[in-house]
Amino acid sequence: MFLPAGKLLTVAAVLLLALPACGTDDEDPSAPTSFRTCERVACSGTIDGVEYQFRLPRVWNGTLLLYSHEYRPADPFPPDFAPGRTDAPVAGDDRAADRLLDAGYALAGSAWESNGYAIRDGVRAAQQLYEKFRKNVATPERVYVWGESLGGVVSELLAEREPWVDGALPMCSTLAGTNPNFDLALDVAFAFKTLLYPRMRLTGYRSYAEARETWLEVRRRATAAVSGGPDQVGRLMLVSALGNQVWKSRTHDDATTASRTSAGLDILFEVMGFATVGRFDLERRVGGNPSTNVGARYGQRISAQERREMAFVDPGGLDEHLAELTAAPRVAADPIARAQAQRLGDPTGALRVPTITLHTGYDATAIVQNETVFGNRALRSAGRTGDLLQVYTTPPARYSTAPYGAGHCNFTTDERVGVVSNLDRWVRTGDRPTLTDLAVAMRGTSPSTGFDPLFTPGPWPAEREL
Questions:
Q1: Concatenated DSSP letters of 372-397
Q2: Which residue, 219, 182, 221, is CA-closest to 203?
Q3: ∠120-126-129 over CA atoms, to 5°?
Q4: What's the alpha-carbon Rg for the chain, to the nearest Å?
Q5: What burial letters (b/e) apply to 275-306, b meaning 16+ CB within 10 Å?
Q6: Which domains does the chain have, with CATH numbers?
Q7: Rounded to whole angstroms, how far apart are CA atoms 278 and 268?
Q8: Is the pLDDT of residue 376 over 50?
Q9: Tens digits of per-residue pLDDT, 96-145?
Q10: pLDDT in tens, 305-316
């Protein structure tokens, strides 16, 4: 959704635009860019028991970047089962935060009242954070909301609702909404249960421990299937293909069959974390199972390349395995729980302000096709649809660990800072960024960037589109 237009920006020009003349705390307090420093206000603490943080520049350009953090699991999450965080970051990358601070931006971030699929808590935390900044530090000339993962959904909801928002930058986010993404996780879990783990529970986990043990058993069975012969490998390949139809992960490219298999396992384990532990949290929030696979036609999701690969590994197996999926009993959603899940907060695409979305091309947690759904909503809305610019990054052709473009929210510091600078220029001047603007700013001082102007995410994997 790019519309190349405007003037060529150099890196120096981008930086100059980010640093207009600014006031200080000692100047006229009515000046828009004057502000109270951290010597005079509490730049960290709690709001209603929730941690927050402000980071203020020496000289302020009048812009506040209000950050909403990534999805934080309510309970220890696979694969490492680390406990949830409660800190208040002001950016997803500390180096990006330092560079934005040096460029004159004020930064703000907050934890949320609860972890998990807590969209409402994220919106409330951001609203309270803005009010605290406005009352204690200064009233910003411009406010840009940005966030990663679930925090990107929070940012877009704020941008659609709050009059004080001037620009939005949702990154690597589930912008298609709660139900479509958890339906897709159910699809993968349903296929794994049917083909590899018949006793697996899909919904209604009775405890966190049960959900955790289910994920661990999935990992054991999937790992065993890799060396279990053609039939087992074919079944595993079909399960992996149903999730998002990409075969690259942060740590495995798709250059060889072995690396594609390893990437498929990475993707499976990531998705199944949300299908088990994440589902347990969501169902507690909405009072039941909100997900369904009634009407899903799994055979339509398999690409021609995947069919060829499965036929090579397990000749004749694909049709047999698809028949098993067709015959297996489907899962119906609790309609009240499904309605509750949708009310948690789904972006509408009714854009009010310049909006840039940033997504890696290969993301198992928030699949890149979320951007297709969101873009279509924007086109159908009564909002200013010309205010959406969707930006993608992709990895190098060969890698062992992707430097960018593959994996959830795997962006470089230059890419994050570069997109912010383009959003800032867009809001200040009204000129939509061009492809050249983005390429120059996102590369920054690095030898390369994952910015890919030719990448398109394709349709949502499930045919039952929203």
A1: HHHHHHHHHSSS-GGGEEEEEE---S
A2: 182
A3: 140
A4: 23
A5: bbbbbbbbbebbebbbbbbeebebeebbeeeb
A6: 11-177+348-443 (3.40.50.1820), 179-340 (no CATH)
A7: 14
A8: yes
A9: 999 999 999 999 999 999 999 999 999 999 999 999 999 999 999 999 99
A10: 889 989 999 999
